[in-house]
Amino acid sequence: MEIKSYRKDLFYSYTLGAFPTIELLKKHQKDVIKILVHSSFHNEEVLSLIHSLRKDTEIQINDKLISKLSNKENCYLAAVFNKYQMTLNPNKNHIVLVNPMNMGNFGTIIRSALGFGFTDIAVIKPAIDIFDPKVLRAAMGSFFSSNIVYFNTIEEYKALYPDHKLHSFMLQAKKTLQETEFESTPLSLVFGNESSGLPENYLDDNSIIIKHSNDIDSLNLPTAVGIALYEVDKQLKKR
Looking at residue 148, what is its pLDDT? Predict the structure, then answer.
C-alpha cells in the first residue's frame, strides 16, 4: 500500500510525533495500519511502549516517508491509521462549533475541551477536515479521546439532542458569562466561525457574551472556548 501525502478524500490519515502516536495506539489500536520510525530515533522508553501497544501492527523504518508526510525535520515517529466513525454521547455536555475553518484552532480547542472534561464536539458544516494531520498535531493526542461528529445544520443537531440546553456565545448577547448560572445538564456551548462568529438567528435568552476591555474587538476562538470551559467546569464542580 502506497502512503500518499494527505488529502481529504483518502480513507486514512496519520499522526506526526511520538505523543499523538502513542495516544492513537492506546485508544484506537485496531485502526492503525502501520507505524513509521525514523532511523535516528533512539528513545528506548518510547520504542518499548510502542512495541507493547502495537500488537500485530507493522513497524517500518522509513526516513523518506516520514519526511514526505511531515514536511518537518524534527518528526521521528508517525502512524498511519484508518479514519473511523464517532458518535456523541447524549448524556454528556457538548461543544458545538459552527463552520470552523482554522485547523490549528480546532486542534487547540479539542485539547482544551478534554482538559475540562468535554469529550464530545459537534461540527456544523461547512467546516475543516477533522482528520487533517494539522488538526491532529495541534490536538496533541487529545483527538483520540474525543468524539467529533459533523452535522449539516444546527437544526439537525438540535433534533438529535433535544435535551441539551444551548448557550450561544455572541457579542450581541445581553447576559455575560459571569452572570450565567449553568444549572441544568446536559448542555451545549455553541461558538461561531473564527472571523464572523454566529449569525443573528442564534441569539436568544440563553446567549452569552464574554466581556473584555474595549482595547480589543474580540477574543480569538480558542481563548473564548477556554474561558467558557473554565467557568462551566468551575460551576458544575460546585454543584
Answer: 98
